Amino acid sequence: MEINLPVLNSGDIVVRKLHKRDARILNEELAIGANWLIPWEATNPYGRTSRIISTKLMLKTARKGTLIPSVVTYQGQIVGQLNVSQISWGSLSSCSIGYWIAERFAGKGIMTTAVALMIDYLLLDLGLHRAEICIRPENKKSLRIVEKLGLRFEGVRERYIHINGEWTNHNCFAVTKEEIPNGLLSKVRAPIQN
Ligand SMILES: CC(C)(COP(=O)(O)OP(=O)(O)OC[C@H]1O[C@@H](n2cnc3c(N)ncnc32)[C@H](O)[C@@H]1OP(=O)(O)O)[C@@H](O)C(=O)NCCC(=O)NCCS
Over the stretch 16-46, which tens digit does the pLDDT of each residue have? Predict the structure, then answer.
């Protein structure tokens, strides 16, 4: 069953569910940010990779309850995406988180706050037990997000995801509900304004 993501916010930073009408802006940002994003984007090892987001397809998958597709907005403007995938219940009750932000909004702490909001929602409100984020060891910017939030390093998954044309190792970080009785948002400093 589809998970009905409420609007999550901390000041100017909002995480909300994806709408079909977000496709145009997201695809414009993906096109503008090709050099910024391609080194970290999943690719198809068996054929051509499309860099066009199909919000229709994402919303269809979301109806099965295994994906929460969301957008991050800053001061009312869409700045990136934050998706929760591989949602499973029962004895795992776990999920995986992925994200990107447009380059001109980077460095303000926006995605760090958005991830904290989402993890607090997933573990403290929705009832999942564990969330993980897998990051290429070369991706220093993304590694800062999990460092700042204090996620636990679980280990290396070798040749785990096909990224930018090759099977790449990922460092896996995770958090379970027991580790964050007061939530993650309290660890995040206010975003840098300009
Ligand atoms: C990883 C990413 C989402 C971080 O989002 P963000 O909103 O910039 O996060 P933060 O503002 O907390 O910054 C994280 C780190 O990025 C680096 N950074 C800071 N300003 C930056 C800028 N203007 N440009 C690039 N990187 C910057 C810093 O190392 C920062 O850590 P710090 O707070 O200790 O200085 C963003 O860099 C991104 O979308 N990168 C490309 C896609 C990607 O890597 N996705 C994740 C795959 S696992």
Answer: 999 999 999 999 999 999 999 999 999 999 9
